[in-house]
Design goal:
This protein is an alpha/beta fold. Helix content is 40%, strand content 20%. The chain folds into 2 domains: 6-180, VC0802-like (2-Layer Sandwich), CATH 3.30.2130.30; 192-400, HUPs (Rossmann fold, 3-Layer(aba) Sandwich), CATH 3.40.50.620. The chain has 13 helices and 15 strands. Helix 9 (311-318) links the parallel strand 13 and strand 14 (325-326). Bound molecules: adenosine-5'-triphosphate (ATP) and magnesium ion (MG).
Amino acid sequence: MVNNREKVYIVRCGEVALKGQNKPYFERMLVQRIKKVLKDIEGITAERVDGLIFVRTPLDTPQEEILKRVGRVFGVDSISPATEIDITGLTAEDALAEVGAQAVEIMLGFIESRGIKTFKVEARRADKNFPVESPQIARKIGAYVLKGCKVLKVDVHEPQALLFVNIRRNFAYIYEQKILAFGGLPLGTNGKGLVLLSGGIDSPVASFLMAHRGMVLEAVHYHSYPYTSERAWEKVKELAGILTLYTGRLRIHSINLLPIQEQIVQNCPEDETTILVRRFMMKIAERIAKDNGCMMLITGENLGQVASQTAEALVVTDASVSLPVMRPLIAMDKTQIMDIAREIGTFETSIQPYEDCCTVFLPKHPVTKPRLEKILESESRLDCEALIEAAVASEEISIIYPSED
Ligand code: ATP
Ligand code: MG
């Protein structure tokens, strides 16, 4: 009997399925996350059955909404809207007749809506007790379709409609599409990190990539108000808003770096301004990370992209903190980074031209091969501890919630 009471979606979890003993834990986290992104939709259920997750919704829930939201849950490999057929207690022959009849219905729909002329059926028998083997299931269902839809022919190479049949315990499923999602690991399965979030292209992509591996994020943003504008801050919040669609709610610590920048400009060599500011950014971030249970720092740095990201500069920046610094973009090309930014929807916002605190007091000729001893010597002219303390004390915290678009 066909399930006409609700819509059914099959959700596949790729890498999660490989996790051996931890598999139930990862699957549980994934189900939890799926429920969370759908929680405002009434009558939704999500449960795992033998390695797959089944999402069920009322009939009037728009399919695009489910595909879009579940498609952004890390750990989900692909999703298929499916027809569910209850075959409990049926003989194999009767079960296949039921599935065949449904396959005909579906194909008649495709003929009408898309004018298809060719098709192919692929079958899987997840229930090994079912007495008919997969290739034979495919052949039988194919035969039902040929009989029920006279205009159709089989094309095993380039079918206009490819129908999948999956026979499981008590239920059979038919679906056409496998909509690919991002894969990765469910949020919350890999600790928490603090991302240094600017308004640029790179750091939102770095955030996405770390969250994609299951890491929960918190963010710190530096500004130089009034040199940087309120609008620049709005842009960062807008970027964070897009990120929350993947990461869930984001806490942003926002910190005015101007007092520190002024001290640096007054007391240190001009060509070292950038690297000195970057070291302060890291140190403040480290303090915030430790106060908020973050195990590592994350930046959008990329080898050689700008003066502050030469190998030498990265070494000197790195030496400012003891927490591990993750730089997921380190070896990517700009075009690759931009492609990801476009895919996740941050690109258009990132390229809006607003000033960043890094561009305030930009030296004319920044040192590209800084030496740590020299930088430490310059820093010794500042009361670093007090400056960091004051910066952290003046932080403002904003919480950004996922805004379903
Ligand atoms: P992005 O595109 O992420 O701004 P970028 O190419 O402009 O990076 P930089 O400005 O040198 O490069 O910054 C390198 C990294 O330092 C950024 O990816 C980000 O992680 C961090 N960062 C830079 N500016 C800020 C800021 N205002 N607030 C927080 N973090 C920042
Ligand atoms: Mg930047």
